[in-house]
Structure formats: structure tokens, C-alpha cells
Design brief:
Shape: elongated
Distance between the termini: 66 Å
Strand content: under 5%
Radius of gyration: 22 Å
Largest sheet: none
Structural class: mainly alpha
Helix content: over 70%
Length: 109
């Protein structure tokens, strides 16, 4: 079929426009400092959730590798950092309110 229907033609044109736009507007990559801060934020989250000590080192290495392999943009960095920090702060507030550590609730069963 050498002829495209209208929907296919529109899809191809929109793809080309988007591709040209993306090439012309390179996304700003997250800096190494930002990547390090994200790793520290994950460390804090693992600490407040009482992540099993015997898994900490391996998990930290895994997260560092994932962050290192990715082409993380500044926008993606800020999104991930916001989620991790928000979860950490929420757990800390809940612990302060209840007077209990995160894992103490599990011992009540």
C-alpha cells in the first residue's frame, strides 16, 4: 500500500514535528551533584523505613547504578526527589505523632 490514510499521515507528521522539537531543545541533564543528592535521599528513606541492615549496601549500590545508567533530566530528578523526600518526611511526621518507630507497628500482630 503506497498510500497512507489520513490518520497515518497525521501521525507521521506529528512524530516528525515532535522529533525536530526535541532535537532543537535538548533537555537539561541532572548534574552529578543532583544525582548524589538523590542517592542521599534514598538513603534517608531506607533509614526511616528501617530497611533491613543486611540489604543496605547492596541496595545502595543498585540504586547508584540505576541512577548512573539513566539519562536523568533535571525535571525527572526534581520529580523523583520530591516523591522520595515527601515519603521520608511523612513517615517522620507519623512517627513523631504516634511516638513509635516505623517498624513497631509490625510487632503488634
Amino acid at each position: 500500500y503506497p498510500v497512507m490514510n489520513l490518520s497515518h499521515a497525521v501521525a507521521v507528521i506529528l512524530y516528525e514535528i515532535r522529533r525536530d522539537y526535541a532535537l532543537a531543545h535538548d533537555t537539561i541533564k541532572a548534574s552529578q551533584e543532583e544525582r548524589d543528592r538523590l542517592l542521599e535521599a534514598y538513603d534517608e528513606l531506607m533509614e526511616v523505613t528501617d530497611y533491613p541492615p543486611h540489604k543496605l549496601v547492596a541496595t545502595r549500590v543498585m540504586i547508584r547504578r540505576i541512577i548512573g545508567r539513566s539519562t536523568l533530566s533535571e525535571w525527572e530528578y526534581h520529580t523523583m526527589m520530591g516523591i522520595v523526600r515527601r515519603a521520608t518526611k511523612r513517615i517522620e511526621r507519623l512517627e513523631e505523632k504516634s511516638g513509635k518507630a516505623w517498624d513497631e507497628d509490625e510487632d503488634e500482630d
